[in-house]
Design brief:
Elements (H helix, E strand, L loop, with lengths): L1 H7 L13 H12 L10 E6 L2 H21 L2 H9 L8 H4 L2 E8 L5 H18 L3 E2 L9 H5 L6 E10 L27
Antiparallel strand pairs: 1-2, 2-4, 3-4
Length: about 190
């Protein structure tokens, strides 16, 4: 059931080296294309990276950008990142068998929102396939343009590692307190 998938799904940062059948990956990518999109145009593409050397280069660039981000972040943000165990080290970029780079087509309307809805569909499909994901948005993504041979109208949105979880995380509970208001913010809560 969909709600069970949503509760079970977790953002995984440690991956097993176990190979993922390509058919599973293709079903996940197809699920992404089934997502609603602005004017039903699907203004995004997926670049699947499975080359170990290319994954290594992506990891190096992401870690360098994230180190710089962590250093210049305000103190409260550094403290928050540390509390969530979010560091500049990104081993999942080389551990996961696949990296799906979601790329928006910026010359089409609604590209950004459409890409994110597509990502949501893919991460739920991955959970259905018994696979783990993480929605990773590096501090800097411009390097991907050259590295992945992206066209001028292509903008990286996120990197989604896909693989078998190398860690077991507990299911989460839905918390809606303080998140839903009727008719105006601060009005009657659900």
């Amino acid at each position: 059931m969909l709600y069970d998938l949503m509760k079970r799904r977790r953002s995984v940062r440690k991956y097993s080296s176990k190979a993922v059948p390509r058919e599973k990956l293709l079903r996940i990518l197809q699920a992404g294309t089934l997502a609603p999109s602005g004017a039903d145009q699907r203004p995004y593409v997926y670049v699947v990276v499975d080359n170990p050397e290319l994954k290594r280069r992506i990891r190096e660039e992401c870690e360098a950008a994230d180190r710089a981000y962590h250093q210049r972040a305000p103190r409260w943000m550094r403290k928050w990142l540390a509390s969530k165990e979010i560091t500049p080290e990104k081993p999942f970029l080389t551990e996961a068998p696949y990296l799906v780079v979601v790329v928006g087509e910026t010359d089409k309307p609604y590209w950004l929102a459409s890409a994110w809805v597509s990502i949501a569909y893919m991460i739920l499909a991955a959970e259905e396939e018994g696979l783990a994901t993480l929605t990773y948005t590096p501090a800097k993504m411009s390097f991907l343009r050259e590295l992945l041979n992206l066209a001028e109208n292509h903008q990286p949105v996120a990197i989604i590692p896909v693989g078998y979880a190398g860690e077991k995380l507990p299911a989460k509970e839905a918390r809606i307190e303080g998140k839903i208001f009727y008719n105006r913010f601060g009005g009657a809560e659900a």
